[in-house]
Amino acid sequence: MNLVIISGPPSSGKTSVILKTIEAIKKRGINAGVVKFDCLYTDDDILYERAGIQVKKGLSGSLCPDHFFASNIEEVVRWGKKEGLELLITESAGLCNRCSPYIKNIKAVCVIDNLSGINTPRKIGPMLKTADIVVITKGDIVSQAEREVFASRVNSVNPQAVIMSVNGLTGQGAFELSTLIYDKNANIETVKGSELKFPMPSALCSYCLGETRIGEEYQMGNVRKMNIGEENDKH
Amino acid sequence: MTSIRELEMKKIKDLEAQYPFVLSFFENNKLSVEGFKDSTFIEYLNHFTQEEIEEWAINIPKIKSDLEAYVNQMLQFLGLEKETVDSITILAGRDKYGNRENFNELTINKSEIVSIVGPTGSGKSRLLADIEWAANGDTPTERVVLINGEKPDYSMRFSTSNKLVAQLSQNMNFIMDLTVREFLELHAKSRMVENQEEVVLKIVEAANELAGEKFDPDTPVTGLSGGQSRALMIADTAILSTSPIVLIDEIENAGIDRKRALNVLVNEEKIVLMATHDPSLALMADKRIVIKNGGIHKVIETGTKEKEVLKELEKMDKIINSMRTSLRNGDSIA
To answer: pTM for the full model?
Structure first.
């Protein structure tokens, strides 16, 4: 089974890109399924079902979705194997741009959109910087110049990635992406013992543990204070 | 080719002097090297504490291999003998029912305009994607696209700096909060153009020749009218984009001189493909491709009779445009 981890900021077009890509891949007779990770709500599973794609969804609820992903990916892979999938795609939204769900030696795709602004490549951490493929969407609604500037900024933060444009509406570029994410010689039996590409942030402050009151006396654990001085005016 | 072993032993000030483009690598990767100019790159990387590394998600091995990849890419890009694209040739494939397309081969030369017509969903996007990808019988249509009569180096499929196709469409907007000048400077910088100022002025001038209403370089791009935006996008794509092929998806006939706009592209030796159902635009093309059921159904040359019809259409466009100007000026139309 091929495993592909697709990640990207909310509303960047991940689901549309996956739907169009699987449409192209199914024509080659490849059996593909999707597991959608989200935080509070998603009905993207209905979109996948409607397209005849096997799908499971997982809502992380009160947990960080990337941590939730890492705790569940082994079972997800087992499900894919059991269903006899040839290609399993996981889809998850990066929420704080600090984590990434990527696993070493597993194809990692980051989806970001032109509309998010040209400074976005600087703001996204390992999710963008350690992806193997970066898919840029919504190119049909910004100018050619902005597309070029955006792509060159992505290139400067991840020069080793394949960077490509996919139009989630017309599907332009999706066929091309499908040729990059499926390799008939690749075979993932399990991800047990695999390692994340990059460690997730260490948190655990009182608010992680359910504290709701504001004020220094309620704050314990990993707490950091802003230095409200000149430092904060500079950047 | 340079290696990270060489690069990391260089002082930052020397890196910047030798490879000026590393400035944007440092900037975009939030590596603030200020105060470390006399340190070597490896010394700079080693100064981060474990806490900072965690805090800012700094991945040192990745930064090193990225810097190596980036410097080599840029050196290759700058040293590249720009191979000009003089023509593209499309060799027939199949439509969505598997029937062979109704032509054998179609060559489009630089400075030529070809329009594409056909109902929505007929396969215009696929044709465009085939060109962009330089299809080699490996896409659903099985078409083959040749560049200058030959199969190209397929590594260009993944290059961000040497894209074959630039696109201009109806729905495109500027989204940056910048003035026209800043916007063009930014684009010029990303293209690593040397004579930035000159290029910027050239684009503004060209855009103003196309736009119904003139604008100055200090106008915010988001404040331009529809016609002005289109004029600026076309002039910018013609002059600053490295892509030899320009795909246009309709140009609305308002606030812009479309004939001149196409001329700007043609004068910059672009190959122009234009999806349109506007008769005056379609007839400005030398040829038109008719798409049906996912395949090229016909290729029609714009004949003398059609060119005569075009003259009539241009007269009508002129009348409408002069009325538009009168309305804008508060005159009565009668």
So the answer is: 0.86
Which pLDDT tens digit goes with each residue over A163-204?
A: 999 999 888 889 999 999 999 898 999 999 999 998 887 667
A residues 91-150 closer than 8 Å to B (CB)? 98, 114-115, 117-118, 121-122, 125-126, 129-130, 139-149
Do residues A115 and A141 touch, judged by C-beta distance below 8 A?
yes
B19 at interface of A, judged by CB pairs closer than 8 A: no
Kind and range of the H or E element at A89? strand A87-93
Give the span between the Cα atoms of B195 and A97, in whole angstroms.
Answer: 37
Tokens of A119: 């400074």
CA distance A32 to chain B (A): 19
**Facing residue for A144 by CB, picked from B54, B168, B175:** B168
Q: Which of A51, A190, A179, A200 is nearest to B140 (CA)?
A: A179
Candidates A133, A132, A24; CA nearest to B125 is: A24
Q: What is the pLDDT of residues A33-67, one digit of tens each?
A: 999 998 888 888 999 999 999 999 998 887 788 88
What pLDDT sits at residue A235? 47
What number of residues does chain B have?
334
Q: Residues B283-314: pLDDT tens digits?
A: 999 999 999 999 999 999 999 999 999 999 99
Give tens-digit pLDDT for A82-111. 999 999 999 998 777 777 899 999 999 999
Chain B residues in contact with A129 by the CB 8 A cut-off are: 59, 62, 66
Residues 6+ apart with CB under 8 A from A173: A135, A164, A165, A166, A167, B129, B132
Homologous superfamily assigned to A2-181: P-loop containing nucleotide triphosphate hydrolases (3.40.50.300)
Percent of chain B with pLDDT strictly greater than 90: 66
User: In this structure, what DSSP letter does residue A117 have?
Assistant: -
Residues 6+ apart with CB under 8 A from B76: none
Domain ranges in chain A are 2-181, 202-235
Domain spans of chain B, in order of start: 4-79, 104-122+156-302
Architecture of domain B104-122+156-302: 3-Layer(aba) Sandwich (3.40)
